[in-house]
Design a protein that fits this description.
Helix content: 40-55%
Strand content: 5-15%
CATH architecture of the largest domain: Alpha-Beta Complex
Strand order of the largest sheet: 1-2-3-4-6-9
Number of strands: 9
Largest sheet: 6 strands, mixed
CATH class of the largest domain: Alpha Beta
CATH topology of the largest domain: 2-enoyl-CoA Hydratase, Chain A, domain 1
Radius of gyration: 20 Å
Structural class: alpha/beta
Shape: globular
């Protein structure tokens, strides 16, 4: 009976974390796009449940060939206020960090492009969440900050990803001072891809989604893999890795052959996403 009870409890926990039962993340499928919208009033502070919902939402898309783009945005005036301070207690910190790490591992592992849309403050863990997007679209309302140093800790994920994005000197500046930066400076540093006026945000996001979603999902995955796998490698090793993916993985895809045929036949490719 004990084993049966455990299985029932595990099933109940899994069902509770299905997208239909999310409490703090709105999950919306629109064609080839899944929107994960942060919605925990009033500051979108991340607690364990919210982090679990984000992780489940991302992980569940890995086998969905028809989904080509993931968009992470906010239903509130703020993008994300970071980790809820009560989650930093000695009793909770390990569980919270496990949930936090799971989200960012999912973002790195998912083969689909991730677009983060920041129309407000992205603080602490919220700044890290934005930075882990493959593309970041922001408005002038956006503010980015890693203030953890002022609380006697440091941001572990920003300390890892920032050097890749903006270089070690600027990463040290942002992490060691805890200074907030504007959307304009974030764009200049390379944290933000596009800085657009608020009244142009929806159009810009939709245009980018349309451009990405019109491509083969399988080829998008290969391209993302080639770029991310090459990070941290020497130029020579990165080139070797990219060519290996191109020759031994990409060329086995039906869509790579379809793309070549369509070019020769002067027609639009008909992707099968495999």
């Amino acid at each position: 009976m004990a084993d049966k009870d455990i299985r029932i409890d595990e099933f109940a926990a899994t069902a509770a974390l299905a997208p239909a039962n999310f409490q703090f993340v709105k999950y919306r499928l629109e064609g080839a796009v899944v929107h994960l919208t942060l919605n925990r009033p009033k500051y979108n502070e991340l607690n364990e449940r919210m982090l679990q919902e984000l992780a489940v939402g991302i992980e569940g898309l890995s086998e969905k060939d028809d989904v080509k783009v993931i968009v992470i945005d906010s239903a509130l005036d703020i993008f994300c206020g970071g980790i809820e301070i009560r989650e930093y207690t000695t009793e909770r910190v390990f569980q919270m960090l496990d949930a936090f790490h799971r989200v960012f591992s999912a973002l790195l592992d998912i083969g689909k492009p991730v677009l983060t849309v920041v129309d407000g403050k992205a603080i602490g863990g919220g700044c890290e969440l934005a930075a882990f997007g493959d593309m970041v679209i922001a408005t002038p309302k956006a503010i980015f900050a890693q203030p953890e140093i002022k609380l006697g800790v440091f941001p572990p994920l920003a300390s890892t990803i920032f050097p890749f994005i903006i270089g070690p000197k600027l990463a040290l500046e942002l992490v060691l001072t805890g200074q907030a930066i504007t959307a304009e400076r974030a764009r200049d540093l390379g944290l933000v891809n596009r800085l657009v006026a608020e009244d142009q945000l929806e159009k810009t996001v939709n245009d980018i989604i349309a451009q990405i979603a019109s491509q083969s999902g399988a080829v998008l995955t290969m391209a993302k893999k080639a770029i991310l796998d090459g990070m941290g490698m020497s130029l020579r090793d990165g080139l070797r890795n990219s060519m290996n993916i191109f020759l031994n993985e990409l060329y086995r895809l039906e869509d790579s052959q379809e793309g070549l045929r369509a070019l020769l036949e002067k027609r639009k490719p008909q992707w099968k996403n495999r």
